[in-house]
Amino acid sequence: MRSSRARHLSYNLLHQHCKKDMIKNALPTLRARLVAYRQDSSRWWLAYNNDNDILVKRVVALSWIGLVGMPLFYFLWGSWIPQPYESPMLRGIGFVLCLPGVMARRYADRCWLSAYLFVGLTYMLPFFFTYMYLMNGGNNIWSQSLLVAVIVLFHFDTATAFLVYLVGTGLAYLAYSEHWWIGAEGLADGRVSVGELTQWPIHVFAIGCVSLVKVGRDVLARERLAGMASALATVSHELRTPLLSIDANSRGMRRILSEARLPDAGHEAFDGALTRVSSEVRQMNTTIDLLLLGVTSGNKNLQGNQMLSMLAMVLSAQERYFFTNSPGQDMISLTLRADFQFQGQPELCSMVLINLMRNAVAAVQRAGKGRIRIIIDGARARPRVLFIDTGCGIAPRNLRNIFQRFYSSPAGNGAGIGLAFCKDVLDAWGAQIRCVSRLHYYTVFVLEFAPSRPNPPC
């Protein structure tokens, strides 16, 4: 009996021990999956917000048109060119719906913007114009107005536009047939005539034409970038050969200089000249890499494939940057609040950081004053890196365009691909870059990454 109890007790203890080991081993895996899921979710949301820049501009423009057009056309169709039916209530609702849209830039990162966009587009375009078309007996004015509304709608995302069109048109026909709206005198009898349904084939044709134009525009842009990539690949190959020769000769001259007996002043002058030659060669090679990657940044080769330490990447970029062998390195300082890990590629990350350092140095040199400060802050909910310079700053009219490809500020300063390349790379990693600047005082570039675990400061 005792031996049986002992075996049973030992079996229970062994089972509990194995269960604890299984839980202990499963926890890191589960935690890693949760972190990966959170990073993927944050990466998708940041990329979604970045892709919405053009969308927000369209919403703002359309909202202003609605705020002006609703009261203007009410008086136009009500007094100057009277129509059978007008509704101040419907126009008042549309006017109120347009008010939040003019502030869409301020709330572009809020999750309710998508819901507002769906409701606003549904009411303002297919519902309002289809209902007014039906209530006015399908006359020419509202027939053409409805066609314009459909064309404007399908300049937005095609899938969203289809859904909005179907929902808005369906609600308009339902409201017309049921006489939901008070004062529906006009030409409404609640029945849809064959003539009013003839608009549908015209709408289908217009939707097809707009969709083809959008696809053709995208294809043209891709072909343009592909042609530029092919031309740049050929040019870069021809440029790298003499650059390699110049770099090899400068290293050979440096070795000869180390063995030659020259006065200290002459030795320092030659050594400084060779250092500048090597620096220019490295800068040209970096520029070539940026040009090549700048026209192919839409490819999947930008995706992050390994975990990197931000502190290690910043220190590596400082070492690679040309001014690390000159007195210019004294103008930069590094502040570490907390290191953090992020998903990226080492070479691309170095190119992003070097490009931001080069811009900061150029701003300080143009202003003839100022310093540069890099802050690594991994203790925040969204880890970030700040590049702060107190140089010449950026004019407000230029600030909104600095991340556009081939745009440079001041004009003619570089190829205009550096910051666009940085944005493309960070977008591919689920990160975000933005800039805050005041002309003649400072510029701050903020790089925000998906949440991660901070590393303890050194």
TrEMBL record:
InterPro entries, sorted: BphY/WalK/GraS-like (IPR050351), HATPase_C_sf (IPR036890), HATPase_dom (IPR003594), His_kinase_dom (IPR005467), HisK_dim/P_dom (IPR003661), HisK_dim/P_sf (IPR036097), Sig_transdc_His_kin-like_C (IPR004358)
Alphabetized UniProt keyword annotations: ATP-binding, Hydrolase, Kinase, Membrane, Nucleotide-binding, Phosphoprotein, Transferase, Transmembrane, Transmembrane helix, Two-component regulatory system
A GO MF label: hydrolase activity
Keyword Transferase set for record: yes
Transmembrane segments: 59-77, 115-134, 146-167
Alphabetical list of Pfam families matching this protein: HATPase_c
Enzyme class: transferase
Enzyme Commission no: 2.7.13.3
This protein's name: histidine kinase
Swiss-Prot/TrEMBL catalytic activity: ATP + protein L-histidine = ADP + protein N-phospho-L-histidine
SUPFAM superfamilies: ATPase domain of HSP90 chaperone/DNA topoisomerase II/histidine kinase, Homodimeric domain of signal transducing histidine kinase
Lineage, highest ranks first: Bacteria, Pseudomonadati, Pseudomonadota, Betaproteobacteria, Burkholderiales
